[in-house]
Design a protein that fits this description.
It is a single chain. By secondary structure, the chain is an alpha+beta fold. The protein is 56% helix and 15% strand. It has a three-stranded mixed β-sheet with strand order 1-2-3. Helix 1 runs antiparallel to helix 4. The N and C termini lie far apart (31 Å). It comes from Pseudomonas serboccidentalis. This is Fis family transcriptional regulator.
Amino acid sequence: MPPGKRELARIERRLIATLTDACETAKAEIKGFTWLTHTADLSALTATLTVTWVFETEADKTLALTQAKARVFELTATALREADIDLSPSDACVRFDSEQECQRTHGGNWRERLARNTRGQR
């Protein structure tokens, strides 16, 4: 039986809490990292979850992709495990982005940018 609304809300709250912990750790460890967010259809969480890690500049993002990608995946894996979500981080569900690129392409409108960059629409 699929989870009900209450269970989905509980999963969402738990995911937000564990991703917040990952975010705070990354701010202290990864140069140029500023924040993260996630998008998902909770009724199909493992198929639709995307965690977006946002860096200040494209240069910071590029540096993270070459020097901190394993750490980002590790922090994401820990957050998912602690939220009881059975999903291994991969390029399909973890995105790297930057404030600079959002400003350039979407005028700083993250809602629009994230809506266009959800899994399956890349």
